[in-house]
Amino acid sequence: MKGREVVRGLVLMLFVVTPLLISSTVAWAQTTGTIRGNVTDPTGALVPEVEIEATHVSTNRKYAASTTEAGVYTLVSLPIGEYKVTAKRSGFKESAVSQVIVSVGSTTTLNLTLEVGEVTQTVTVAESATPLLTPDNADVGTVVERAAIMDLPLSLSGTFRNAENFIRLTPGVTGDSFSKNYNGSAWMSSQILVEGLPTSNGDIPGLADLYGGLPPIDSIAEFKVNTTLFPAEQGRGFGFSSYTIKSGTNSFHGNAWEFLRNDALDARGFFNPNKPIVRQNEFGGTIGGPIIKDKTFFFGTYSGFRLRGGSPVRGTVTVPTPAFRQGDFSQLKDSQGNLI
To answer: What are the angstrom distances between the C-alpha of 296 and each of 242, 313, 319?
Structure first.
């Protein structure tokens, strides 16, 4: 058991760290977001050739684009998190919008207005409201954010704390972790993606077995559950869940946890003479931070699981006698007392 835990921990560490050290467009494309919008002047006319720059607040990474002749810009493959977006063009004041949130698998619409003036002047606003509608795409889904993942309770009855239990927060999703139903879909018709990579074949556990279903909850930044009308490249079933893992930032951060169940804290059942043995521990930690500030980061996690238990049995138990073990049943009697 101990050897399996070590192997599981090592594989899990590689699973989490490797995607953050290797730049993979295919993987990031499934677990990132997009900022899109248009730029206008005070009269409402669209402004072309505007320099757009989005800065990821936690890592200070910058992503750039320019508006087209139609005054439209698109920033793709953005890691999730908070951004500050600026727009510059000669003859206009610089426009800056802070607190722009990018979620996994989602498109954030941000329309900007430039005021006439010197480029050295800056107009700064805060983007606090999240639009209720997404006119840029027709997919239907729900983003389960970090706060919900950490604050909502999970059952610890002989199983891992599994983030997949939260998919039923999405309208149209029913069932359990072993048999999920997306708006009436057939069994084994869903897909699970972690950092853009499939970890299961429908509802049949595959690679996910190594992690007790998914990476530890504390390593997951957020995930999105899509139930219908999602892009073709996102899955091959009737629904899918796309998980993204935390990343390192310019500051060191981490945590440690321990979840405990013990029969010493339980009450005896009404019809049970003794309490069943339950000794369950789930523990681990995360750590992340900079390797080279503003350029390279790391993040790692480990989780362990121990479960010991049993139920008291009332009555007697018959075991084979030495003669029975040798194939001698001459002393065995039938129901009438006759020797067999």
So the answer is: 24, 57, 64
Q: How many Cα atoms sit within 13 Å of 107 on the Cβ side?
A: 18
Cα–Cα distance, 223 to 243 (Å, whole number): 4
The whole-model pTM stands at 0.69
Other Cβ atoms closer than 10 A to 222 = 23
Q: For 17-27, how does the pLDDT look when each residue is reduced to its tens digit (9 = 90+)?
A: 444 443 333 33
Contacts for 159 with CB less than 8 Å, ≥ 6 apart: none
Quote the CA–CA distance of 340 and 330 in Å, as a whole number.
6
- Tokens linked to 334: 């039938």
Q: What is 235-286 written as a DSSP string?
A: -SSSEEEEEEE----SS-EEEEEEEEEEGGGSPPPTT-SSPPEEEEEEEEEE
Count helices and strands (H / E) in the chain: 4, 21
Residue 271: CB atoms within 10 A of its CB come to: 6
To which H or E segment does residue 323 belong? helix 322-325
Contact 102, 130 (CB under 8 A): no
27 Cβ contact partners less than 8 Å away, ≥ 6 residues apart: 19, 195, 196, 197
pLDDT for 223 equals: 86
Task: Please say whether the beta carbons of 47 and 30 come within 8 A.
Answer: no
DSSP codes, 210-226? GGTTSS-GGGEEEEEEE
